[in-house]
Amino acid sequence: MTISAHASSAVLAAACSAAGLDPSAAEPIRIAENEIWRLPRQRAIVRIARPGQLAAAAREIRVAKWLADNDVPAVRALPIDQPVDVSGRPVTFWEELPGHTDGTVRDVVQLLKRLHPLPVPDFPLGELDPFVRVSARIDGATSLTEDDRSWLRRRHDELRHQWAQRPTGLADCVVHGDAWVGNVARTASGPILLDFERVSVGPPEWDLVSTAVKLTTTGAVSPPEYAEFCDLYGLDVTQWEGYELLSAARELRMATYAAQHAATRPEWQKEAQYRVDCLRGRRGPRPWNWTRIM
User: What is the CATH number of the domain that holds 274?
Assistant: First the structure.
């Protein structure tokens, strides 16, 4: 995804004007599929989403308010009329967090224990789709060979078919959809949940798999860390009969995310190719020790 700095600044300025905020000292935090900017004078964060995501952005704001109403520690949306639509790009505004670091595995499970028991809200969340945007990511992964992309498409089709017939597990509930340490901030007062783009209704095992694959696939989580995660949640999802399917879906997401961005970020091409090689059986057994790219 190619992003024009001039176009992004124009969207930011227009959105802030509509919201009554001052963008003159805005600082970019992350420029990727979604853009994150900081407004230091207002201690606010601005999130500019991809075109065509207005309904999803509006849902994120509703989710944020719902989490606040249920006392779940999560980033709060600013109390203004939002999202703002600028040339088809939805823009949302959030309270800036105090000083923080990335969350820990323990933080993730503590927040999931607060989220999963909540009753489903009375506004539509939609059903979990573990393959959202995967097809577009494969199409955009132009640093890969056509043979690799064809294989990824076949794997995508295979897993979608299996997902439709997945084993029964825990009762569906509200899931975060992308529950890993990068979407949790650790503050002095405790962990804070971030990023509500994938919040939906689905199997809670999907949220647990995000940490489990850090043990079984990427090697980023140690056995003692994972054991504590399971003890705190009360379940080891790797022992469930549906784990292979859900972990394969998560691996596909992680590989195609890297591959899509490698098309415009040459420094990520080696890691993207390595992930695909792992999935295709070219790099031996798991864990593969994938490197975080963002």
Answer: 3.90.1200.10
Mean pLDDT in the chain?
A: 95
Percent of the chain topping pLDDT 90:
93
pLDDT digits (tens, 9 = 90+) for 25-48: 999 998 777 899 999 999 999 999
Please indicate, yes or no, whether residues 134 and 261 belong to a single structural domain of this protein: yes
Q: Tokens 């952005």, residue?
A: 57
Question: Would you say residue 215 lies in a domain?
Answer: yes
CATH for 45 = 3.30.200.20
Asked, for residue 286, whether it belongs to a domain, the answer is no
User: Is 185:192 a contact under the CB 8 Å cutoff?
Assistant: yes
pLDDT digits (tens, 9 = 90+) for 199-224: 999 999 999 999 999 999 999 999 99
The tally of domains found in the chain comes to 2
Q: What range defines the domain where residue 141 resides? A: 105-279
